[in-house]
Design a protein that fits this description.
Elements lengths: L1 E2 L4 H11 L33 E7 L4 E2 L4 E6 L12 E6 L5 E4 L11 E6 L6 E2 L11 E6 L5 E9 L10 E5 L10 E5 L5 E5 L6 E7 L6 E6 L6 E2 L2 E3 L9 E5 L4 E5 L6 E6 L7 E6 L6 E3 L11 E5 L4 E5 L3 E7 L4 E6 L4 E7 L7 E5 L5 E5 L20 E7 L5 E7 L4 E5 L4 E5 L6 E6 L7 E6 L6 E4 L10 E5 L4 E5 L4 E6 L4 E5 L5 E6 L8 E5 L5 E5 L20 E7 L5 E7 L4 E5 L4 E5 L8 E4 L7 E3 L9 E3 L11 E5 L4 E5 L4 E6 L4 E5 L5 E8 L2 E8 L5 E5 L20 E7 L5 E7 L3
Parallel strand pairs: 1-9, 2-9, 10-16, 10-17, 18-31, 32-45, 46-59
Antiparallel strand pairs: 2-3, 2-6, 4-5, 4-7, 7-8, 10-13, 11-12, 11-14, 14-15, 18-19, 19-22, 20-21, 20-23, 23-24, 25-26, 26-29, 27-28, 27-30, 30-31, 32-33, 33-36, 34-35, 34-37, 37-38, 39-40, 40-43, 41-42, 41-44, 44-45, 46-47, 47-50, 48-49, 48-51, 51-52, 53-54, 54-57, 55-56, 55-58, 58-59
Length: 749
């Protein structure tokens, strides 16, 4: 005979329970099959062909307890059982307190299990861990201590109010720890009622219920005194099964799976199995979950989606479901599906539990989810103040719990006023719609403009004839939605490339967002609050948070971006910024030096050679744009010469390279030359309004060749280009900070 004894873990649990004042019984009695000193109760004898048998009795009277509910539990951690209830079997004790399980069908003989018994007027008792024995039946003696009533109530259908029979209900005295200790279970009777005995006074516990076809629900409560408390639980109907199932998101082109075999290969296909419209292989995680993204098929109503993990195969036909609109003012979301279908509508990207409504479509398939008032007592059923930009899912399911999901984001029209370009940019307005923009008082505006949104609801338009300035009231309206924004005093005052710092002014105490324009995400961002005088400074030299956008960024000459100050409803003033891309260009063949983006209208210092004792020096003047041009230099500029230019704020130097253009071949459409080995050469060709570009690398012999006879890409400047008479161009070599050695070339007759 294989008996189960009191384990050290169970003994620790007994010692913990002894600390409660209400415990007067001797809880050291073994919960097991035998002990050195025979208890008052004795274990009955096994019946024929029993895998598990036992006896339930009252240790204070040594009398059997009849009609006690006896259940067998196991941890559902094995692939074939994931997601199923962890109660394997259930029976009742007879008039002599005996019970038996003739066929204990464990998924695996090595799986540990526990035996639990309860009866009205007694506290639960659970055996220590047991394992099946193929040669002998397992015997368990369960002694139930008399106890007062602690928690009682009824489990009902939240939609109809009808009682739910045979719902599994539990109390967990340690809800934050994954343990069998402190866990008591019951099943409701025909009128949905349940009772728990022996819940310690002053204990916070979780009480919950689950039943087939319903969403699980749990609540936290505390026993304040020896008087029993009533906890009634209303379960929301659900089509979700306890086994493997899938959610198909046509709008997101995503398929996700739940409770499939853990760490297993899963095949997913859409359409006919022999010639599917889409197929993919993926892997489940340790919980049996998988995702398939970026499906290159337009998932439509009626498509058949098949998922298989080798053990289970399920098929779901994509159902009709659509959210057609949302009303932030009235806090409603509406849509269409098949007539009479139940729809779950929930706000996604929200704190759990997700705000949700369950409604039934009318005879024409229309439905309306009203979040303006509470739909029940649960947290998810409380009122929700819907905001523009909120995202909702509408979910419908088939008979075995697979679901079709439609996602929808409420429109959030907003606009930007760009101070630098004196322009407005609209986002998320209705597509293909006329929009009116006014500057100033609506009754007598300074200027009025009429624009049209594109297919995604946006436009970028200049305000011709008007220069936007701080304090302007800008109004944008499409006839349905009207938004206003007062242009702020936002400005970028300085950019320090050495300190990676950007500073400026804004409305006092306002929040300012500063972005750096980069080719690939993440976009470096800083959120800065202006001080009481409106001054702000954004430091990109150090990380300001854990996100990718919060990491340090090296601001260099040529870096650019935008600063934005948002108002309360998301409209904003924008000011562009750019670190000057100050450049020096040297043409040694023509003894010509010129540059761009220096301080405007400033006298520069230019030297060739060692700056303290130069071979040549001059003081060219920049124009109003910061450009300068110095010709007829009285020095034969050659490779190796150091050219230095300074405007007092910025100093840049460039060493002239050994770049040469040796041949222009109009027959083979090539330009050739020489430079230092394994260095890059940029070659441009121009004629009329056409241009072409090649980036080449010199070989080990210092030679390079740019071939324009064949395309090297799909951009216009990468296509084939005929080097015919009239074509001219240049070759250049740039150093690390974009200064260059520059040579002209042309095609002659």
């Amino acid at each position: 005979m294989n008996n189960c004894f009191l384990s050290p873990h169970r003994l620790q649990n007994v010692q913990r329970l002894l600390r409660f004042a209400w415990m007067t019984a001797a809880l050291w009695l073994a919960v097991g099959c035998s002990s050195a000193t025979p208890p008052p109760c004795t274990l009955g004898t096994p019946t024929a062909e029993s895998d598990l048998y036992g006896t339930v009795c009252d240790p204070t009277t040594a009398r059997p307890i009849q009609r006690a509910v006896v259940t067998v539990h196991y941890w559902a951690e094995w692939p074939d059982m994931v997601g199923q209830a962890d109660i394997l079997a259930r029976t009742f004790s007879d008039l002599d307190g005996n019970f038996a399980f003739p066929e204990l069908e464990l998924p695996d003989p090595s799986i540990p299990f526990w035996v639990e018994a309860y009866a009205d007027g007694y506290q639960n008792r659970t055996s220590e861990e047991c394992t099946a024995d193929p040669d002998e039946p397992v015997g368990v003696l369960l002694e139930l201590e008399p106890e007062f009533l602690g928690v009682y109530g009824v489990v009902t259908d939240a939609r109809t109010g009808d009682p739910i029979e045979d719902a599994r209900i539990w109390i967990d005295l340690e809800p934050e720890r994954l343990s069998m200790d402190g866990l008591m279970t019951r099943f409701t009777v025909s009128d949905g009622q349940y009772r728990f005995y022996g819940v310690p006074t002053g204990t916070q516990f979780e009480v919950g219920a689950m039943a087939e076809g319903y969403e699980q629900r749990a609540e936290l409560h505390t026993i304040e005194s020896t008087e029993a408390i009533e906890v009634n639980l209303a379960l929301t109907p659900s089509d979700q099964p306890l086994g493997p199932h899938m959610w198909v998101h046509p709008t997101r082109r995503v398929i996700v799976g739940f409770l499939w075999s853990p760490d297993s290969n899963v095949s997913v296909l859409i359409g006919n199995t022999t010639s599917p419209d889409f197929s993919a292989e993926t892997q489940t995680n340790e919980e049996g979950y998988f995702e398939v993204w970026e499906i290159d098929h337009d998932i439509a109503v009626g498509d058949r989606v098949r998922v298989s993990d080798g053990l289970t195969t399920k098929t779901h036909t994509v159902m009709e479901i659509e959210i057609t609109g949302g009303d932030a003012e009235n806090d409603t979301v509406e849509g269409i599906t098949s007539p009479g279908v139940w729809v779950d509508v929930r706000q996604t990207y929200a704190d759990e539990p997700f705000p949700m409504r369950r409604i039934q479509a009318d005879s024409e398939g229309h439905w309306l989810a009203d979040f303006s008032e509470a739909a029940g007592d649960e947290v998810s059923q409380q009122p929700l103040d819907i905001k523009p930009d909120c995202v909702f899912d509408a979910i419908v399911g088939d008979e075995d719990g697979d679901r079709t999901v439609h996602s929808y984001q409420l429109p959030n029209p907003w606009f930007i006023v760009d101070l630098d370009y004196s322009a407005v940019q609209a986002w998320d307005w209705p597509p293909d719609t006329d929009v009116t923009v006014t500057i100033g008082d609506l009754t007598a505006p300074d200027s009025t403009y009429h624009f049209h949104t594109d297919e995604v609801g946006m436009f970028f338009e200049g305000l011709r004839g008007y220069q936007v300035q701080a304090g302007d009231l800008v109004t944008m309206s499409d006839g349905t939605t009207t938004k206003t924004h007062v242009v702020s005093r936002l400005a970028v005052a300085s950019i320090d490339v050495d300190a990676d710092m950007i500073s400026g002014v804004a409305t006092p105490d306002a929040m300012v967002q500063i972005e750096v324009q980069v080719e690939e995400e993440p976009i470096p961002v800083r959120w800065i609050q202006a001080d009481g005088d409106g001054n702000w400074a954004a430091d990109f030299s150090e990380a300001v948070g854990p996100g990718d956008e919060d990491q340090p960024f090296d601001i260099v000459l040529g870096s650019s971006g935008v600063a934005q100050e948002l108002d309360e409803d998301g409209d904003c003033t924008a000011a562009d910024w750019a670190a000057p891309n100050t450049q020096v260009n040297v043409d040694p063949a023509a003894d010509h030096i010129w540059g761009h983006e220096w301080l405007a209208s400033t006298t520069l210092t230019l030297t060739i050679g060692e700056p303290t004792s130069p071979d040549f020096s001059a003081n060219p003047q920049t124009d109003e744009w910061g450009n300068f041009d110095l010709n007829d230099i009285a020095l034969d500029i050659a490779a190796g010469h150091l050219v230095t230019v300074s405007d007092g704020a910025t100093t840049k130097s460039h060493t002239v390279t050994g770049l040469e253009v040796t041949s222009v071949d109009a027959v083979y459409d090539t330009v050739s030359g020489s430079a230092d080995s394994e260095t890059e050469v940029q070659v441009w060709a121009f004629k009329d309004e056409q241009s072409a570009f090649r980036n080449v690398v010199t070989d080990a012999d210092n030679d390079w060749m740019a071939d324009f006879s064949q395309a090297v890409g799909f951009n216009p400047e990468e296509l084939e280009f005929n080097l015919e008479p009239g074509v001219s161009g240049y070759a250049s070599q740039m150093d690390e900070d974009n200064d260059s050695t520059f040579l002209d070339w042309s095609v002659t007759e």
